[in-house]
Amino acid sequence: MIKIYSNKEINKVKNSCLIVSETINMIKNYIKPNISTGYIDEICNNYIIKKKKSYPAPLNYKGFPKSICTSVNDTVCHGIPSYNEILNNGDIINIDISVLKNGFYGDASKTFIVGKESNYLSKKICYIAKKSLELSIKILKPGLKIKEIGNLIQKYVNNNGLYVVREYCGHGIGRKLHEEPFIQHCYNNNNEILKPGMIITIEPIINSKSRYIRVMKNGWTVKTIDKGLSAQYENTILITKNNYEILTNI
Fold it and tell me: Partner of 188 for a Cys bridge, out of 50, 159, 184, 224, CB 3.0 to 4.6 A?
């Protein structure tokens, strides 16, 4: 069932989302050439646990071994941080942060370009991924059919010569990290409507060459099947009486 949250519960989700935003804002200063994704994970883990007295939601979630997801270049999502994975000038990296605080979750992600060198495609895919999220948020309001979110995203992305990953979606969030409703980012027929008090994530994943993906042997990391680039942006959003409120700030 789709959960409608009370004002008291919403305030707790807002607090978790604030920690997510603060963590993403903090870690951006460490995303540089020659740094490992394992070190990025270590910094976030210490910040979330020691400074924010919270819990990094991915850690041990269904067996996931790290505190954040770091998805570099052709990694679509669920990249596992490693001290052996070193960032290079011009790489793109998605940092996916989710936290648990006082029984409630917050969730967001952002894609960064590493260093000062980048090509046109890296800039384009990051821009289109972020813009598709922003445009989809702007249409949110009570009574909107959920299918309109994905329909808008796919049309915009395809019109710009890029591709939407269909296998992963946004979701309800609150007392659970993933709950109903599930928000597809592609054309779909979900006629459920948004209602005040619902809290959702929208998190389109955009590929450069095709929408097709493969899951690696570790059971978590997802890559493009053709080694094309992949970018993602995500916010947690509250549906209000009249429209929406963005709870994370990426």
Answer: 184
| DSSP-assigned beta bridge partners for residue 235 | 202
Question: pLDDT per residue over 140-183, tens digit each?
Answer: 999 999 999 999 999 999 999 999 999 999 999 999 999 999 99
- Cα-Cα-Cα-Cα torsion 216, 219, 221, 225, nearest 10 degrees, comes to 30
Burial of residue 224 (number of CB atoms within 10 Å: 0-12, 13-18, 19+): buried
Residue 16: exposure state from Cβ atoms within 10 A (0-12, 13-18, ≥19): buried
Point out the annotated binding site for substrate.
78, 178
From the annotation, which residues make up the binding site for a divalent metal cation?
Answer: 96, 107, 171, 203, 234
- State the residue for tokens 């959920």: 146
Q: How far is CA 71 from CA 9, 92, 94, 236, in A?
A: 31, 8, 5, 19
Residue 143: CB atoms within 10 Å: 9
Known binding residues are 78, 96, 107, 171, 178, 203, 234
Select from 3.60.110.10, 3.90.230.10, 3.40.50.300, 3.30.565.10 the CATH code of 7-246. 3.90.230.10
Q: Which pLDDT tens digit goes with each residue over 5-19?
A: 999 999 999 999 999
Residue spans of the domains in the chain: they are 7-246
Question: Nearest-5° angle of CA 242, CA 100, CA 39?
Answer: 120
